[in-house]
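SEQUENCE-TO-STRUCTURE ENTRY
===========================
What this section holds: a protein sequence and its matching fold, both as plain text.
Question of interest: how does this chain fold, as expressed in backbone structure tokens?
***
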Amino acid sequence: MNERIRLIVSLLLTKPDIKTMEMMQELNLTRKQVNYAIKILNFHLYELGVTPIKRKKNGGFEFSAEIKKVLLSNDKNRKGISSFDNNERLYLLIAYLLANPGYVSLIDLTEFLHYSRTTILTDISKAKSFVKKYNIEITYDRTKGYSLNGSSDQLMKIANHLIFKNMELVSRDDFEMAISNNKLIKFVKIFIIQFEKEFKAKFSDSYFDSLVILIAIILLRNCGKNFIGVEADSFVEQTYEYKYIKNYLQTHGKNIQIGWLKWITIEFLSANVYLKQKIQLNENDRKIVTFVHQMVESFISQTLVDIPNQMQFEHRLVNHLCPACFRVKYDLSTIAIVNMNIDENTKILADIIHQLIKPVEEWLGTPFPEAEIKLLAVYFGTNLIDNISTSTDLPRYHAVVVCSNGIILSQILMKELKKLFPELKIILALSAREFTETNLDFDVVFSTIPLSTTKKQYIITPNMSNQRKVELRYRVLNDLGISKLDSKVDDVIDVLKNYISSSEITKLREKIRLALVDTDEIGVNKSLPNLMYYIDKDAIILKNEFISWSEAIDLSTKPLMNKHKITQGYVDILKKDTDTPTNYSFLGKSMAIPHSKPENGVYSDGIGFLVSRKGILFPGGRVIHLVVPIAVLEGKKHYKAINQLAKIATNEKVIKKFLKADSTKDVYSILASYVESGDDKK
């Protein structure tokens, strides 16, 4: 329980009749900060099975004696109260300097943070070291005080770092207190809402709150005299958003300097949205739409998996990739990035995404960080769950997902929860703002943040471990009365109780419960088969003479036909698909991977492997040496094999070995040696 909640708890215990307004005045908090603290406290109480605090119509609070015991137990043995921990104090001090472009005195800082001069001086020393990493300097003048100095680029990078790495301070309005300009905050909120209306966009909850702080800081900095300007660049200036922002601010009497105008635009363009329907596309947008379509087509080609509702998927991906491109180009932090523990499937997908994203990286002039790649890989992967059948029984309960971090993560969470809870019908994903306005009838809400609701709610993250999934599954099903696990646990305990002590039984109960949960239902990943699982020795073909691309497909698929793994109809479709200008069935410069949907004539899994010393001219002008027809039935089982093929296709040394091989036996040995030695992982 954090210190602000403790302060509120103490006040409730000493003044049980206190009203919200009095609490705000006594603790110098906003209504939002009080509401948030009560919400967090109620969530803890709910977790403990204790009746939560309720609001009275007169603005007071109602809580039972049982709650008092919990609050008192949390409040005892405390000596002194501090509002923020050391890191929070450091970040708020820097935020205060960011929001005050002139000089601030030591007295200003002590009054803002409510700490002693000695503590604040120590914090200033730490802050100097912290901002130095951003090429920013905290200067001191004996008569004026302290000032934060640097270019607008560096100042905004540190501002983004502070905001997006400390979202709890944002949600509690602590950063707003650093700005301490209610009129400006109101102007900025209206500005963002008007921007949403103009561009048919809806920012995620976290980004909306963060944008308020960041844009307010920019407008305050714009008035400062110690501005170190930078030139705006065409990447930003050619956007419709830049022109709209410039006009809006001028219309409302804000004469914005060009460097800060650039950064307001960047903050808008790099923010995650839940929904965006652009009426006009600028040059950047059109390029990203093209990149996304090429990425998805290549992804389908390389993974051999169809994406349901491809146009809708591409639209959502554009909504994610547009802000991601601005984050990457301008090296910004983002709350969309999480340290995900990804499974083998997703690691393989990440390798594929690394290749697919290269044209975008070349366009931006900078590589995508690993965290952004992971996020894209997880997003692509979770969309494949639609191809996996679940229980056909009609779910008894309805659930919604609330995610404050944007559409990509909300979709990821929805897919994970659908897989984890086939007994539930997951209706849709909402932002917290949308949740407060919805009239949907549902039984359960899964949320990344505590919500004010009477429905059963469960806090989730996009990075749940298998144990966390097991625990969540048990708890939800048990709360809904679906699981009979507790009776099984009791049966085991009845057997053990005559042999172990009561204290040991208590310790064992949870372990037994977790052991009995069916982990197959939560998607615990098994090892995937490698490339050699799909390629038989007699599937290798070695050709020395010139052949046509059509002959190459006939020859390379013949071993699969002979073993009744595919039909002639499947071969005919491979030829038809290959002879089209939009064919994406290639890996690297020298490998063709003709393939089609399993329903077009696949009876069982298999891969052919033809090596041609003479180049084969394929439609579209590609010269190919390796023709590898692929036939697979299951949606995700083949990822590892396809990833190994992709790495072979870009390994010139291995390709040269294939072309110099004396026999099909040698080709098979080279292939097996490469795969089994783990060279594909290098």
